[in-house]
Amino acid sequence: MTTYYRGPDVLVTSTGVRMGGRDYRLGDLAQVWHRRGRRAWGNVAGRGALVLAIITPVVIGAIGVLIALVIDASTTTTIVLAGGGVLIGLAALPLADVLLEFVDRSYDRGSHRLEIWARVDGADVLLLATTDKRRFGQIYRALQRAVDDDPTPSRAPEAR
Questions:
Q1: What is the pTM of this model?
Q2: Where are the transmembrane segments (predicted)?
Q3: In a 10 Å sphere around its CB, with 0-12 CB exposed, 13-18 middle and 19+ buried, how is residue 127 labelled?
């Protein structure tokens, strides 16, 4: 038996598939396809909050410099305000690096629900639903390889 994918709740082997707590023999899967489901707005909102957290210190720093240049204050006050604004803007750089890493990870997770479906005994069955694009791709490719390598009558995975 060949194992194509093994995860905490998914197992794809040369003899069958375990997804969603149910076992299926490869021969039971008459057709396999994937579908892109609804958008997960929570992921999009989280990504927006991260971008806002990156931009906010830069905007505050720019406002500080702008105020320092616009108001009619002493030279010392102008230098302090402009210097403070620049320091706040520069302080955002290390924070931005960390936050951009989180933004990258949010794109890896995706913002759409991705689903793997199969036709089993004439009924369409949802095998897997996730927003994790990388995990979805690994599982779907493993399922494709398992079905392609299965000696029973061919019914390769199709996209709908």
A1: 0.62
A2: 44-71, 77-100
A3: buried
